[in-house]
Amino acid sequence: MDDVEIKARANHQIMKILVVASVGLLLLGWLFNTPPGLLGKSDAIGYAVCHRIDLRSFHLGDRTLPLCARCTGMHLGALLGLAYQSIFNRRKAGLPPGRVLVILGGLAIAFFVDGMNSFLSLIPGAPTLYPPHNWLRLISGTGMGLVIAALLFPAFNQTTWPSWLPQPALSGIKPFAGLALLAMLLDLVVLTGNPLILYPLALLSALAVLIELTMVYSMLSMMVFRAENTYTKLTQMLLPLTAGFGLGLAQIALLDFVRYLLTGTWDGFHLG
């Protein structure tokens, strides 16, 4: 091993220590300055990415979930889609075939239409296509979550692995139908309103936000470090994953700070 390689390894170790220490300090600062408890921390994550309007959210008793109905569906759907693809097609990184892309496009359009219809219902006298409901927000959000997972999963694989497979993770209608069936069952479980079920799902919905941000920022970190397609297992990815998590948490912390500065409360936005 020559001096250049030794110096490069030493610099890498120093960078790793600095990144881990910085993210650790950021995490501690965020934990100490956000509402207490697991649900409180989940609320703080939702506070950064969601309006959290009470009437447009599901509830644990009289407590609003960390994310509104649409965002709950979207992030749980994304988490389900990512887990489904990683279990059955860990290294596949191709985009879904045309027929599946058409369905995903339809889900994205449904998300946009329902979102616009719901927004217009806030404006007195504005025309709407149909009365908005939380169950519609949940379903359209879950569909959009599947879209996010179908795009994010192959992008992450293409950025990470040197031996990624060009085949699509969602290879056709049948695999996608299995995922869609699981998504429908997930929505039905949410709609039961059972607090024993809603509590872990509330935590998972907030965790999903962090996972998605970590994946996106980890890809960015790999590009910055010029380390794309150099990893063969997750245990080698401490530096980009930690950096990705830190950047995602920094985004959440910044949005938390700005919103709290403007509103002075951790509550969701109030209508009327």
Tally of discrete structural domains: 1
Strand order of the largest sheet: 1-2
The sequence of SSEs as H and E is: HHEEHEHHEHHH
**Which stretches of 5+ consecutive residues score pLDDT under 50?**
none
Would you tell me the structural class of the helices and strands? mainly alpha
Task: Using the CA coordinates, give the radius of gyration.
Answer: 20 Å
Sheet having the most strands = 2 strands, antiparallel
Strand content: under 5%
Distance between the termini: 69 Å
How helix-rich are the residues, as a percent range? 55-70%
Number of distinct beta strands: 4
**Shape verdict:** globular
Topology:
Layout: H1 3-32, H2 37-49, E1 59-60, E2 63-64, H3 69-88, E3 92-94, H4 98-120, H5 134-160, E4 165-168, H6 173-191, H7 195-224, H8 238-263
Parallel strand pairs: 3-4
Antiparallel strand pairs: 1-2
Helix pairs in contact: 1-8, 2-7, 2-8, 3-5, 3-6, 3-7, 4-5, 5-6, 5-7, 7-8
What does this protein look like?
The chain has 272 residues and is mainly alpha-helical. The chain has one domain. It is 69% helix and 4% strand. The chain has a two-stranded antiparallel ribbon with strand order 1-2. It has a two-stranded parallel sheet with strand order 3-4. Helix 3 crosses helix 6, helix 5 (134-160) crosses helix 6 (173-191) and helix 7 (195-224) packs across helix 8 (238-263). It is globular.
Features:
two-stranded parallel ribbon, single chain, 272 residues
Sum this structure up briefly:
With 272 residues, this protein is mainly alpha-helical. Helices cover 69% and strands 4% of the residues. The protein is built from eight helices and four strands; from the N terminus they run ααββαβααβααα.
